[in-house]
Every structure is written in C-alpha cells, then in structure tokens.
C-alpha cells in the first residue's frame, strides 16, 4: 500500500492518495483544492482512482472535488449529515478568496462501519461527529494500519467545535473511540504532520483522561 499526502491551498488541507502499487488501483481523500496539482500527481504515479472520499463537508476539504471527479470519472462519498455544510461551498470560496467552486456532487452516502475494498486496499468508515455532524475517519487494515482522521484529530490538537454543526460533547465521545484504538496506528490528519495514536495518547492534552472528564 502506498500513501502520499498532498497539502493543498492556503489552508494546507491534506489531500491523501492511497493506492495498491501492484494493480495501480487507489482512492483519494479530501480533494480540497488545486485540482490540477492533484490530477498531475495521480497521473505521474499511475493511479487508477476508483473513488473519492470526503472526511467532512468544510470548504477546505471539498472545493476541488467536482473537477477531480469529472476528470477521473470517480464516484464521491460523504456522510449525509455534512451535505448541508457543502451547500455553502461557493459562498465560502468567495469569503476566503479562493477559486469559486460549486458544492461537491456526492454519489454515495457514508455510514458508520461501511467497509471498502479496492484491490488489496481494505478500509472501513468510522463516524466521528464533533468537528462537524458527519465527520468520518477511515481505518486501513494492513500490516501498518493507517487512520485518515480528517479534522477530528491533529498532531497535538483536535478540530474546532465552535463552527456551525460543531458539538464538544460529541467530539469528546469521538475522541474516546480513538483512544481505544491500538497505539501503533499511524494517523494522517486533515492538516499538518502525520502522527500515531500512541504518540497522541502521550502528548495530546485532548486525549488525556482529564479531558474526557470535563
Ligand atoms: Zn473542517
Ligand atoms: Zn480543515
């Protein structure tokens, strides 16, 4: 399994490509902007993109989706609870001064426990609300397991809960689920550097037992 992070736009949102080197089959997570750069990478790596997964509906994670989807003829997955957020995509693009894009065209709803296999890739969806109602992370089952965490968990921090649809109580429950995962899982967050569940349990104040009692 190959994985590459492509940080896009001034938001430095992590678009993540994961593919099976033997067959070339792969998927993209969070096509947040700079579609040409994402498509150039896909072409240079020889990836046959089978699907695009959106971790949540915020503009910095979805704004390049329609162009990438159209170029690759790939279906788009998003949790239905975040569809309402995506309706503000073009207004938010205008607000932030980034190229104006329409709301992403979603083909399939995501739900807790959904499992996906593409070639040797095998991963499942975890619904982790709190940063937004439909936040979904993706856990790859392999020798070196990987979690695509979106804006739920960052290195040393967590996603905001004060934006529309945010909910601190739900975030606390979602973090509680992440704390139960094995330490060796590599975490690829929606922004910033890779980390691991074990490292965050040690250093991230939001994964401390004190936080869950607040
Ligand atoms: Zn977000
Ligand atoms: Zn974000």
Structure description:
This protein has helices at residues 35-45, 59-62, 65-72, 83-86, 89-96, 168-179, 197-203, 209-213, and strands spanning 2-8, 13-19, 25-29, 48-53, 76-78, 108-109, 115-118, 121-127, 136-140, 146-150, 153-154, 157-158, 186-189, 195-196. It is of the alpha/beta class. The protein has one domain: Ribonuclease Z/Hydroxyacylglutathione hydrolase-like (Metallo-beta-lactamase, Chain A, 4-Layer Sandwich). The chain has a 6-stranded mixed β-sheet, covered by helices on one side. Strands 7-8-9-10-13-14 form a 6-stranded mixed β-sheet. A two-stranded antiparallel ribbon has the order 11-12. The longest helix has 12 residues, at 168-179. The protein is globular and about 45 Å long. The structure holds zinc ion (2 copies). One zinc ion binds at residues 56, 58, 131, 151, 159.
Largest sheet geometry:
6 strands, mixed
Based on DSSP secondary structure assignment, what is the total number of beta strands?
14
Rg is 16 Å
Mean pLDDT: 95
- End-to-end distance: 39 Å
Fraction in helix: 25-40%
CATH class: Alpha Beta
Which homologous superfamily in CATH is the superfamily? Answer: Ribonuclease Z/Hydroxyacylglutathione hydrolase-like
Any guess at the CATH architecture?
Answer: 4-Layer Sandwich
What is the CATH topology descriptor? Metallo-beta-lactamase, Chain A
Structural class: alpha/beta
- Strand line-up in the sheet with most strands: 1-2-3-4-5-6
């Amino acid at each position: 399994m190959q994985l590459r992070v492509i940080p896009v736009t001034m938001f430095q949102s992590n678009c993540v490509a994961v593919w099976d080197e033997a067959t070339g089959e792969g998927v993209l997570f969070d096509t947040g902007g700079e579609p040409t750069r994402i498509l150039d990478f896909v072409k240079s790596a020889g990836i046959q993109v089978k699907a695009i997964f959106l971790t949540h509906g915020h503009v910095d994670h979805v704004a390049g989706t329609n162009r990438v989807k159209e170029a690759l003829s790939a279906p788009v997955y998003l949790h239905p609870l975040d569809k309402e957020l995506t309706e503000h995509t073009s207004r938010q693009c205008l607000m932030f001064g980034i190229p104006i894009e329409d709301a992403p065209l979603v083909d399939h709803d995501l739900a807790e426990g959904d499992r996906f296999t593409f070639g040797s890739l095998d991963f499942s969806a975890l619904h982790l609300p709190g940063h937004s109602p439909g936040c979904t992370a993706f856990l790859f089952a392999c020798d070196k397991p990987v979690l695509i965490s979106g804006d739920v968990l960052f290195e040393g921090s967590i996603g905001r809960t004060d934006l529309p649809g945010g909910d601190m109580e739900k975030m606390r429950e979602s973090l509680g689920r992440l704390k139960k995962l094995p330490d060796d899982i590599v975490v690829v967050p929606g922004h910033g550097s890779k980390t691991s569940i074990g490292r965050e349990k040690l250093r991230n104040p939001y994964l401390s037992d004190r936080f869950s009692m607040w």
